[in-house]
Design goal:
The protein is mainly β. It contains one helix and seven strands. Helices cover about 10% and strands about 45% of the residues. A seven-stranded mixed beta sheet has the order 1-7-6-2-3-4-5.
Length: about 90
């Protein structure tokens, strides 16, 4: 299923803390796959992390690296959530 970048954030937010997979292009041009989830509050230090809808960044918990990471929605290639696969157009 193809989905626009505008609807990707809604699909991710609708996971309600369940694990999802994303594939995106890193800053160095490499393609990365990540298993992630929202809503994890482990190891929070407080303060602001800089993510917002205006800069297309979303903070997630990387299930493999066991740490917080940021995903740039502008470089997202694909998303798999709730048993559905989405190709970002």
């Amino acid at each position: 299923m193809q989905v626009s970048r505008l609807k990707v954030l809604k699909v991710i937010n609708d996971t309600n803390g369940k694990i999802f997979a994303v594939r995106f292009i890193k800053k160095n041009g490499a393609i990365r796959m990540m298993l992630a989830r929202l809503g994890v509050q482990h190891d929070l230090k407080g303060g602001s992390n800089g993510s917002s809808e205006s800069n297309s960044l979303i903070t997630v918990w990387d299930m493999v690296a066991n740490g917080y990471r940021m995903i740039n929605l502008e470089t997202l290639i694909s998303l798999k959530a709730s048993g559905r696969e989405y190709e970002i157009i």
